[in-house]
Structures are given as C-alpha cells and as structure tokens.
Design a protein that fits this description.
mainly alpha; NnrS protein; NnrS
C-alpha cells in the first residue's frame, strides 16, 4: 500500500498545469506585440514578420490565440509534454517574427498544432451532446487555419491569407461566445444564488447557445464564398448572432450582481461580441473590410475574457485571492478604450493621417497596459508556493 501511495504522488508530481507555465509567457508576448508592430510598420529596421498588416493579423489570430487555447485546454500534461508545447509555441513565434517567409515558420506552426491536437483531442472527443462536441471541429479548424496562414505567408500568397483571416475572425467569435458562456453562466448563477434572492433559471441557455453555434458557423461558411453571395445575405447570420448575444446577457440579469466587479467586467467583455458582430455585418453588407468589427472582438472580447480567465485560473491553481474589483475594472476599461480606438480609423476613412496615428498608438498603449497588469498579477502569485491538488 505505501508503494502505491508513493507511486501516485510521484505520478502527480510529474504532471504540471501548463497554464501556469504558458500564460505568463503569453501575457508578456501580448504586452509587447503591439509596440513591436507599430515600430515595425513605421521603421524599416523593425521585425520582418510585423512589417506588413498580414504579419500583425497572423500573430494576433494564430500566435496569441493558439497560446491561449494551449494554456486553457491542455490541462495537466506530463512535465516533458508541457515543456515541449511551451518551446514549440515560443519557437513558432520567433520564426514567424523573424523569418515569416521561411519553411521553418510553417513547419514550427504545424508542429505546435500537432502537439496541441495530440494533447487535447482525447478530452474534446469524450463529449456526447452535439453542442459539447462542437468544440472539437472548431478548435481543429482554428488551429488548421493557423498552419494555412503560415503557409500562405511562406508562399507569398496574400489572396489566401485575408479570406483565411476573415473566416478565423468569425470562428473566433464563435469560440468566445461558446466558452465565454460556459464560463459566465455558472459563475453568475452562483453569485446570484449567494445573495439569497430568486434563483437564476436562465444559465447556459442551451437554445441560445445552439443558435449561436448555427448562426456563426453559417456566417463563417458564407464568408468563404462572399464574392458569389450578396453582402446583405451573408451578413444575416451575424445580425442574428448579435441579437442572441444581447438576449443571453439580459437573461443573465447582470443588474443582480451588485458589487461583483470581476463578473461584471467579464460580462462587458462578452458583451463586446454584439457590437463587433454588428459592425462586421454592416461592413459585409456594404462590401467593405470586416476589420473594424474583428478588432472589437479581438481586443474587446478576447482581451477582457482571456485576461479574466488567466487571472481566475492562476488564483485557483496557486491558491491565491483574485485581484480587487478596481484591478478588473481598470483592465476592462483599457481594453474597451483600445478596441474603440483601433476600430475608429477603419470606420472613418476620411480621418486625417495624424489622427489615425494617434488612435493607433492609443489602442496599442491600452492593450499593452492591460496585459501588463495581468502579467503583474501572475508574477505576484509566485510569492507563495503552488499547492498540489
């Protein structure tokens, strides 16, 4: 019996929470990526991988997002596997930033995707209901599009890249609506239950969740053939998805959360999906770039939800208190201001270049400060040893 207990302890110690290793690195990367992008766009001696808009989009959609997916879904792998995933992500980022046209950039991105799928597919494949199983093809599509994006840059085929980026933006909105809902529903319900009032009945809201899956998946498919389909028609699923997001938030009754600034801020991040999808629908109807709406989603929704998940997971795994409400509010405010500042120049094309430049730098500053605060919180939790669970 002692031998069995000893073996179990050694087995548990050989496993690590990948999130505790990867999320600080991802946060630091997210903090510096926008200043590096602006420097590379405005200076000839900047990083080759960020000297064109395609490079910035690739690193946001397939560099940062891949790191977040890896940390959130990989769970507790063996120490060697965790180290391998971390090194693969880091190497893929170095290659993409410095040698974006090289074969190595594509190979390393493909290696990272293969490692992640090998790690997370068994867990995702265990789901039974169709709404739960949607995560499997969704993650597979997002990771696969990352490899296609790297390949299109290596072959210098931008006509591949931008359709890939547009589809990825819609699929990312689907992922955020799905996982954000699964995160917020129980947290909001528990917070309201503790107040002693009427129990919240509308929690996950499976019909709305199913509607979001169908509408956004349809929007992604229609965007692949946007040149053959009228813009107003391909925008219809985006309008419906935005409406469903609003209905879902209202049914969560956020006015009953009182002083729970952490949950209110996460709800604000989830709420950014609605204006993001609306702007994407408007732009698609007019036959214009959906970039402004995509920025509202990637900065407003992704920024707030990702940093919130990172801080909650860090607090849980390291047995630490969550940040104060003002900390959450400041991060959410910075991301919100950054989202608006980044979307405005693309919505109002007649803005003078000086005003556009100021807005770009303001957006980059807000984004970097918010991720910096998230990184500071993670580093502060290191003052106390991790408690094994």
């Amino acid at each position: 019996m002692p031998t069995d207990v000893s073996s179990t302890v050694m087995y548990n110690q050989s496993k690590v929470w990948l999130a505790l290793w990867l999320f600080p690195l991802v946060s630091a990367y997210a903090m510096i990526i926008m200043p590096l992008t602006l420097y590379s766009l405005y200076q000839t001696q900047g990083l080759p991988g960020l000297s064109q808009p395609e490079g910035h989009a690739h690193e946001m959609l397939f560099g940062l997002v891949t790191g977040l997916i890896a940390g959130y879904l990989s769970g507790r792998p063996e120490r060697k596997v965790a180290l391998l995933i971390l090194l693969a992500w880091f190497a893929a980022r170095v290659a993409s930033l410095n040698w974006p046209d090289s074969l190595w950039s594509t190979v390393l991105q493909a290696l990272l995707v293969a490692l992640l799928l090998w790690q997370i597919l068994p867990r995702l494949n265990a789901a039974k209901r169709w709404r739960n199983r949607i995560l499997l093809p969704l993650i597979f599509a997002l990771l696969g599009l990352g490899v296609l994006s790297a390949l299109s840059r290596g072959l210098t085929l931008p006509m591949w890249f931008w359709p890939t980026a547009q589809v990825t933006g819609i699929l990312l909105a689907l992922l955020l609506s799905y996982m954000g809902g699964r995160l917020l529903a129980p947290a909001i319900a528990n917070a309201i239950d503790r107040t002693g009032g009427t129990i919240l009945k509308a929690r996950v809201q499976p019909r709305i969740e199913g509607g979001l899956i169908l509408t956004l998946a349809t929007a992604a498919l229609l965007s692949l053939s946007s040149t053959q389909i009228p813009g107003w028609f391909s925008a219809l699923p985006l309008w419906l998805a935005a409406l469903l997001i609003c209905i879902r938030i209202v049914r969560w009754q956020p006015w009953r959360l009182g002083g729970r600034l952490d949950l209110l801020c996460l709800l604000a991040g989830y709420g950014w999906l609605a204006p993001g999808l609306i702007v994407m629908a408007l732009q698609q109807t007019r036959g214009l770039s959906t970039g402004p709406g995509l920025h509202l989603v990637t900065i407003g929704t992704l920024g707030i939800l990702a940093t919130g998940v990172i801080m909650r997971l860090t607090a849980q795994r390291r047995k630490r208190d969550l940040p104060t409400g003002s900390w959450w509010a400041l991060i959410a405010l910075l991301f919100s201001l950054a989202a608006v500042s980044r979307a405005l120049p693309d919505l109002f094309l007649l803005l003078p270049w000086s005003a556009r430049t100021i807005l770009y730098f303001f957006a980059a500053g807000g984004w970097s400060l918010a991720w910096g605060l998230t990184l500071i919180y993670q580093l502060r939790t290191l003052q106390r040893p991790v408690v094994s669970t």
